[in-house]
């Protein structure tokens, strides 16, 4: 009798779980979204005509400094006394502005593109730089160890879409339209200084020298740069309490707080000296209004107004106020949805694999978002120029220089609050941010369409086109002379603007082709 044996099949080996994406891959994913999301939202503005001082500065600075970029420094220093007497002393900011104008002019010369396109491309590049700086700032606050040693948090995955959605052409003074390269880059500098203060774990002697020098430099950069010092101070204090859990004594003796103190040591003497000199020159009025400050009872009321003026729905109204019909229809929203949706699809897959910061660090990040918002809003609240140019509903909707700080500050606050609401809210928030970006891109397209039919904008775009493709023939000279005549006629009774058209275009033409912009026979 034989015993029956049963063969038990071997259990199938369970498939090993898929390894999570490596930190470098995730950081690359975040960096690509920081670049691509702002480009999608801002591309509709690529052909918008230059306005205000852009109409002249890009030709003037580009022509002056194309062959000698180093002269930007000497030229700015030589003209410093005149600007100090006008109450508009910001030499380092002017050097940056001239460098960006030179970059746009060089792009025109090398690529044959109109100046309006290269000028907007420079602004879009600055928006990308700001988006990267916001992510760097947030991760510098939240990360306890080495910054790029681990994977980015879920905050970093959401921020590129959030910040990009805030880049709306909310009026002709918005940073997306006017001096975007200068002020968006300045905002990136402000956030980078604060991020640097957060990451210091040891204060060496050269860090101290750098801090004092940087503080003095920020005092003569431009108005938004002033807020780098208080923001850096708030960042190291809030991070120390909410993220690192330091005691009061540990916090006050930390490297970050001492670095911030040295920033103040360099900033305050330089700032006080410059403002004291300007006050002496401008006490009787007549100085540059854009740098005038006023503190009164109305400031208390204006501060919360400008702290909410960055919201995309409010900015959409300003961007589309002059647009006839239903501006949400057309090809633009479909294309923007496809592009942003494709970017977000991959991010959606990575969200469950990313870490969510704890409650206390998120509360600290939300508090810093409020600080950034308040710094930006304070810039507009105290400005005489804002009170002169805006009133009523415009104060709630129109963009200005403060938008460069209030947009990233507001979006930091939004992302932190979304993650505090719970994990389930994150995916819905990503979809909402994509839709915000789609509508912002569509609003920008509507603004561009409105500007394109304005006679002055058409003239400036035609001038940009003939400079970009400079024709040395007699027929080309005749076309340029006709455009110059048209510009002079359009500014009849404004000799200053007439002179600026003549001089700036002539400098550009002589640099590009060695001939005047308009060389009439006889």
From TrEMBL:
Keywords: Membrane, Transmembrane, Transmembrane helix. It comes from Actinoplanes hulinensis. It comes from the Bacteria. This is Glycosyltransferase RgtA/B/C/D-like domain-containing protein. The keyword Transmembrane applies. The chain crosses the membrane at residues 121-142, 154-171, 177-198, 205-221, 259-278, 331-351, 363-385, 405-422, 429-448.
């Amino acid at each position: 009798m034989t015993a029956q044996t049963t063969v038990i099949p071997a259990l199938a080996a369970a498939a090993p779980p898929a390894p999570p994406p490596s930190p470098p891959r995730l950081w690359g994913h975040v960096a690509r979204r920081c670049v691509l999301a702002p480009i999608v939202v801002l591309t509709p503005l690529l052909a918008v005509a230059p306005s205000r001082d852009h109409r002249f500065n890009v030709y003037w600075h580009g022509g002056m400094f194309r062959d000698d970029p180093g002269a930007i420094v000497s030229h700015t220093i030589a003209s410093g006394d005149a600007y100090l007497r006008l109450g508009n002393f910001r030499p380092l900011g002017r050097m940056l502005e001239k460098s960006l104008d030179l970059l746009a002019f060089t792009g025109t010369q090398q690529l044959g593109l109109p100046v309006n396109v290269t000028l907007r491309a420079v602004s879009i590049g600055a928006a990308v730089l700001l988006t990267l700086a916001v992510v760097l700032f947030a991760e510098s606050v939240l990360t306890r160890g080495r910054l790029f040693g681990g994977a980015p948090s879920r905050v970093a995955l959401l921020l590129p879409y959030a910040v990009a959605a805030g880049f709306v052409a909310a009026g002709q003074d918005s940073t997306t339209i006017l001096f975007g390269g200068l002020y968006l880059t300045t905002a990136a500098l402000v956030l980078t200084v604060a991020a640097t203060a957060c990451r210091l774990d040891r204060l060496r002697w050269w860090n101290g020298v750098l801090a004092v020098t940087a503080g003095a430099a920020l005092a003569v950069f431009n108005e938004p740069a002033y807020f780098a010092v208080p923001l850096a101070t708030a960042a190291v204090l809030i991070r120390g309490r909410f993220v690192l859990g330091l005691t009061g004594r540990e916090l006050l003796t930390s490297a970050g707080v001492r670095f911030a103190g040295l920033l103040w040591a360099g900033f305050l003497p330089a700032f006080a000296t410059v403002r004291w000199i300007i006050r002496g020159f401008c006490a009787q009025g007549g100085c540059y209004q854009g740098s005038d400050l006023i503190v009164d009872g109305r400031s208390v009321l204006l501060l919360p107004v400008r702290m909410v003026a960055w919201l995309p729905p409010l900015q959409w109204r300003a961007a589309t106020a002059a647009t006839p019909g239903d501006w949400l229809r057309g090809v633009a929203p479909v294309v923007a949805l496809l592009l942003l949706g494709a970017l977000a699809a991959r991010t959606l897959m990575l969200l469950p694999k990313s870490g969510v910061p704890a409650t206390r660090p998120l509360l600290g990040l939300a508090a810093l978002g409020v600080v950034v918002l308040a710094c930006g809003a304070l810039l507009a609240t105290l400005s005489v120029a804002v009170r002169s140019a805006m009133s009523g509903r415009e104060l709630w909707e129109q963009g200005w220089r403060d938008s460069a700080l209030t947009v990233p500050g507001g979006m930091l606050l939004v992302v932190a609050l979304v993650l505090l609401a719970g994990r389930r809210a994150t995916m819905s928030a990503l979809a909402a941010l994509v839709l915000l970006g789609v509508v912002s891109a569509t609003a920008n397209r509507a603004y561009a369409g409105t500007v394109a039919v304005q006679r002055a904008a058409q003239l400036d775009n035609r001038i940009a086109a003939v400079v970009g493709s400079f024709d040395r023939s007699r027929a080309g000279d005749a076309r340029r002379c006709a455009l110059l005549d048209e510009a002079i006629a359009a500014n009849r009774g404004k000799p200053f603007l007439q002179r600026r058209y003549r001089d700036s275009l002539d400098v550009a033409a002589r640099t590009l082709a060695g001939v005047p912009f308009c060389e009439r026979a006889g």
